[in-house]
Protein 1
Amino acid sequence: MAVTQVVRSEWTKIRSVASTVWTLSLVVVVTVALGMLISALSKNEFDSMNAQDRADFDPTFISFAGMSLGQLAMIVFGVLVVSNEYSTGMIRTSLAAVPQRGAFLFSKIAVASGLALLVGLVTSFAAFFLGQAMLGSHRAEIGDPGVLRAVLGGGLYMALIAMFSMGVAAMLRSPMLSLGILMPFFFLISNILGNVDATKKVGRFLPDQAGSKIMQVVTPIDDDTPYGPWGGLGIMGLWVLAALVGGYVLLKKRDA
Amino acid sequence: MSRSSVAGMIELEGLTKRYGEKVAVNNLSFTVRPGIVTGFLGPNGAGKSTTMRMILGLDHPTAGDVRIDGKHYEQLKDPLTYIGALLEAKAWHGGRTAYNHLLCLAQSNGIPSGRVRDVLETVGLTAVAKKKTKGFSMGMGQRLGIAAALLGDPRILMFDEPVNGLDPEGIHWIRTLMKSLAAQGRTVFVSSHLMSEMALTAEHLVVIGQGRLLADTSMADFIARNSRSYVRVRSPQRERLLDVLHQAGIVTVESGDGVLEVDGGKAERIGELAAQHRITLHELSPQQASLEEAFMQLTAESVEYHAHSETSPASPEPARQQWGDGWKRG
């Protein structure tokens, strides 16, 4: 079984269903539009800020504010790519065609992740430039220290969120169950854990909290996060690895 | 088991699948050979689909082994070119077009994309090739599944209940297709819960009940061995006929309305005896119990066997009832 054959096949699968187009379009539109809105609001508030808030003002990070919502569409994309196989019964056809389950799963994840990375980078750059345009005189430039790293990191973050969702969906199989766990987790629970003092130290090791450190350019003065931007992305990478290994082990073991 | 090098063999050896306490497939051993249609017969829930999923490597056997041309399924390079299968209906994404569904399967096995158009033509779906499959009727769905099975031009074809839900025209089409595939020298392995369906298509028969092998035989042998044949005789001189037959050593059974039943195929002998003794006959007709009856008799026997072999003192009567029920519902 040549892996290139399986990758081509998975590319045909992914480009031939409508959910790919609408989930990824939503990623771009929601992230960029919300980022622009929050950037515009932040610009108007800047004048009423105190000295410390002005010192912590991170125009790059503000322009990525839309990702908190846009990532949910990325989660839907990742979940559907994998769980559609199960909810439609396609999995039996797929595994009869490609009985090497590792080749099947990782070709699928490679193709979907490549696409997610591409869309993530487009989203990230668009959100940055359009967000900065909204920020006017408070804007950051792409050449400023750490800014290009943050913008590229935004694209990587989106790809990793999609990959994590694929791993979880491979373990759970059901699209509703996967979304029912991932959506509230990333939209609510992670934020709550990360903002309540008692759970903050644990919360910042969650995949989204650790991973989003890469998009920060200005480190807040009272910040005591024990990892840097790449360290944070590395922690997120470990979560992704765990989810994918879990998904692979279960797929290998289970009856289709 | 012989590891013969003839292409197109499916060999099962002690194949067993347990789900917890329940045994779905119990120590199945048989070989499916090329050039004929082999029917895989059993009541609903007998383990036919589970067996077929194990052949395709989708379900892992609890014990035993199944090989395609001497290899395990996952050892086959581009498996769709060895064996094509129609599993239960609608094993695909309804949002994808028929063409794209077949294209992604073709690509995964290195099959040229021109072949997709060929098989769509073969099954008569060319006109709806660019339509999403969720709008397909049951019959179109079966045709798409068969197109996927034919895609790799495989030596072995496996169909799980292919006539389910089809209209008479579709049923006729599938029967003809299966016979022509076998006539081309391919191995055709088809499951059904309908004996009448098998009688029309299969030359060889594998019968299972409760996951157990009940028969592995040619269709002709199966009929001869399992169906009771007898001769119906009616005569206005019934008492004289009974005497004559009795003197000739022929055992008769009276079945009411003055009809005599004589076991075995002895119509000629009875006719000759009647003529010799100038006895008028109103009826002399060889009868065959239907294949349906033969099949039910066979599976009922397996139930009795199970009931006796179990340690619990369960009465065989309710078990037989359950079997009949499952059978009728199917």
Note: The mean pLDDT of chain A is 94.
Protein 2
Amino acid sequence: MHQLSVRSVIKRFGDVTVLEDFDLDVAKGEFIALLGPSGCGKSTLLRIMAGLESLDSGAIDIAGRGVTDLAPENRNIALMFQSYALLPHMSALENVRFPLRMRSKLSREEQREKAHKALELVKLDHLADRYPRQMSGGQQQRVALARSIVAEPDLLLLDEPLSNLDAKLREGMQVELKRLHESLGLTTIFVTHDQSEALGLADRVILMNRGRIEQQGTPEEIYRRPRTVFAADFLGGANIVELDVAKSSRSWRGRFADGTEIPVASAPGLEPGKHKFMLRKEAIAFNPDKSMTAIVGTIETQNYLGSQTRSAIRAGGVELVAVTDSEKTVTKQRETRIGWRPEELVPLQM
Amino acid sequence: MSGDARRMGREPAILLAPGLFFLLLAFFFPAIQLLIQSFLTVGAEAGRLTMEHYAKIVVDDFYAGVALRTFRLALVITVLCLVIGFPLAVVISRAGKLLRTTLIVLLILPLMTSVVIRTFGWLVILGPGGVLSWSLQQLGLIDRSISLMHTETGIVIAMVQVLLPFLVLTTLGSLGQIPVSLEEASRVMGAGFFRSIRHVTLPLSVPGLASGSLLVFALSISSFITPSLVGGVRLQVMAGSIYQQMTGSFDWGFGAALSVVLLIATLALIIPYMVVTSRAGGKA
Amino acid sequence: MIAATPRWVIAATAIFLVAVGLYMLVPLLVVIASSFSTSAFLVFPPPGLSLRWYGEILGSDAYLNAGWTSLKLAMTTVVLSLALGTPAAIALSRFRFPGRSVIGSVFLSPLILPSLIFAIGLLIVFSRYASGPSFAGLVIGHTVITMPYVIRTVSANLADIDPHLDEAARVMGARWWQRYLLVILPQCRTGMAAGAFFAFNISFDDAVVALFMRAPNVETLPMRIYSTLEFSPDPSVAAVSTVMIVMTMVLVVLLNRVFGLSRIT
């Protein structure tokens, strides 16, 4: 049985269709990322799951219960807001106790104890009596997180959980979120526009575009095998190259704009004609070995990034960007040979 | 360069001077004169210092009664304004643009209409053979003509209508500062519609409600047009007797003393009001 | 809006709003209705409809004089409170100087003191140091109670505007009078307009200060209405009141255009 199922949900704001016949099933204990650019409908979907937004048609089930017409307070879920939405007139402990006060039949003392435990989980029990305005942004976020898990919700929703933190805190919070998910096993769905967050946290990434699922899969599948130009571009801005594909005897060959020909791995659905391929920036290597597809290119500019170097290379009549380990990078040499493993050239649907 | 810098310092002084000078002469000076007047004798031996006017307020049962009525009415009016005004402000703060504008116009139009005219309207409604009496008769609820003129109920009904906008507009300011996400969060955490209002909206609008009700109370103890016209001479309030002392019986000393008592009561309310609002302002 | 607000809550809210709406508006509506009555008495419902009371007020010297006095008084008050309030508002919102917040509260203090108490003080001063209340006394009294509104609206207006415009003008070589004429005052326009509307409305409608500062031969419309109500109200008062209500409506519409009603809160 699914912990959450979203069936044929349609949502419009005026003339704009935000969600188009959206389906999603989430198993108990899964950690899901809804990833996409702003305006793709991911936040609306999260708000619909929470009951904060109505839907035009479709149905939502949570823990086997139809909740489509239930108000948020009757859904037994938790939502961590992007702004945290801590109640300013209550201390951290009171904030964390609030869902218990509303939902559980525990005594006041038991509630306080439970809230305290939740604060311990996020390592904030020593600040239980502070008010939100007396805390740093990172501490406020931990309170919000404790408040979201304290009542053991059927579904934990996180809206851009890391976006208000600076880079250093963000890293720590990622570790924290992952640890909490592993220890509590709550079915968790979070919304983000940051691909590294989605890849780093989720078991399954749902990539959304214009109110639909563009592609879904494990972080590795999504990253390594994007199916569309959009997916390839959104996940780390890969090189997209267009090749004229033809079949010669047994194998496929692709021709660059300037006529350079390379072998192309066969793939289901591949047909002769112009076709787009993805080539990850890290897949390109200097001084290719025998097993690689190799072409000649001209280095145009290079940016030193520390352990890695980014090179813009003109090859096959197009510009390719390569990110390589700095010590393996050819420098100060205009013409050079570059190459990649044949399977790294991934065919894309339009 | 230095001349310019000096002018920078002089500029606000030049801008402020006319207004400050005017206020000093036309506002603060009269206020002090009022205070002095309340300690001066009138009549044949005018101009001597005395406490007799203040003594009269305390000793004379009639004026003690007037003071009591004034504060009792103000309390009832304030409570009613709170009871009607808070839900109204909540609705306005959540309403769509059209409804919101309509409701604000509904509050501001009467607010900006002369109190004399609004009271006139209430005379037509509450009087014998008035709109209220006629409507109740049409509905078959009463069989004889009734009048709420010269009753405290009538004063309260009219005064709440006059003062309600102040409470609602002040509370609306507080409500506007509550992020929508707080109420959404409380709903998601399991608080129903009313519990979410009780635990989130109400506590966070306390500054607005407090300053609004202090304002209503202060305005209510110092208003005389509505109570005088609706209540008549029999149901006098402090402001009404002051008007009578100053313009009818010309007992200025006593009128001034009554005003000073009213002023002290007002300041006792207004100072906490200013503390509340400045604290709320400082937080935002 | 949150999904699934209980239906009965919506119904109860609708009933509540209609009730409050009626409560707020009926006093004005009955005044307007009575002004079209044929009867010489204020009875409800009116026996018939006529415009005779409008004819009556147009032929009444007392009402016409009162109207003219009110108009002159309101106009003078507007000019004076703009002239004194605008510079003060500019100083308070454009400059940082010691005692700024104290001076700010001094300027707004007439809002706090009940106008009744102020009016008595003014009456005492005018009787003791001048030859009693007069038209000028009324102008002064009204300027005191309207100036805070000008200061508020102009300050609110200036708060919305880039403070660097002023410095930019300076850098571009504007002299002080050019800065005021070409940069600062044009920025205050909407605030001044809104302040003027408030000042006009308050002065035109005020009965409190006017009743205390009652001078021989100076009678404003609210004073006239008040004394009529005290003794012998007839539908001509309703006709005058209706005219004033219509004026207020026009002012509210203008105020909304210029300033936005939501900012009044």
Note: The interface with chain A takes residues 179, 181-182, 184-193, 195-196, 199-200, 203-204, 283 of chain B (CB under 8 Å).
